[in-house]
Amino acid sequence: MEYITQFIELFLHLDKSLSSVIQTYGSTTYIILFLVILCETGLVVLPFLPGDSLLFAAGAFAAKGDINIATLFMILCVAAILGDSINYEVGRLIGPRIAQREKSRYVNKEHIDKTHQFYEKYGAKTIIIARFIPIIRTFAPFVAGLGTMSYKKFLQYNVIGGVAWVAICLFAGYLFGNIPLVKQNFTAVIFAIIIVSILPAVIEYIRHRSITKAA
Predict the structure, then answer these.
(1) Structure pTM?
(2) Whole-angstrom distance, CA of residue 205 vs CA of residue 121
(3) Apex CA 17: angle with CA 3 and CA 183, to 5°?
(4) What is residue 96's predicted lDDT score, i.e. its pLDDT?
(5) d(C-alpha 147, C-alpha 172), whole Å
(6) Between helices 29-42 and 69-99, what is the axis angle to 10°?
(7) 34, 75 in Cβ contact below 8 A?
(8) Whole-angstrom Cα distance, residue 44 to residue 86?
């Protein structure tokens, strides 16, 4: 039981314990990273898993030579795209039943409602924009399946958003993660990444409001 608890803690805070994971598990780290990103994007009940911060941390360790950046990039892109596809299917199959309930034990209906509102503002572009916004990132593909967006259209945005998200966060860590000032203020850097991540949504919202007022 204690081993299971430790394993869960490892998953929940992998961005902070990645150094010890690499030292302990070696090349198996790729599989662990793949599973965390897959679950964070693919399971609507796990929006609290590390995403942006984990990609940034992985990039920083890749820059030190602890893990291979090219392998990492390919594996995590597959995880991000596959995760959203799984989430889409879950939304399509069981989403309507969850959406009709006022309370759900595993899924926060308020998050579903907020993501619905996001779609109202940004349409299919939500799949790309949401990649850079925690919580919304996990619920966007679920709501896309729930709203019966065509999978062909969804997949197009899914691939663009997934590759862009992984590339930006991973290579930001690769380029800047080992700068002393960044390492000493890692938490602040992560918050900065999150703020920068939601800028596209803020800009789009302001543009949408301006168009609405002009009309």
Answers:
(1) 0.77
(2) 7
(3) 170
(4) 67
(5) 34
(6) 30
(7) yes
(8) 10
C-alpha to C-alpha distance for 50 and 34, rounded to whole angstroms = 12
149 touches 71 (CB < 8 A)? no
Tell me the two tokens of residue 96: 């309507």
Are the beta carbons of 18 and 58 closer than 8 angstroms?
Answer: yes
User: How high is the pLDDT of residue 4?
Assistant: 47
For residue 180, the model assigns a pLDDT of: 78
Using 50 as the pLDDT threshold, list the residues of the chain that sit under it.
3-4
Q: Which residues have C-beta within 8 Å of that of residue 77, sequence separation ≥ 6?
A: 162, 163, 166, 167
CA distance 56 to 60: 6
Within 10 angstroms of residue 99's Cβ, the number of other Cβ atoms is 18
Own/partner contacts of 97-102, CB < 8 Å, gap of 24 or more, are 99/146
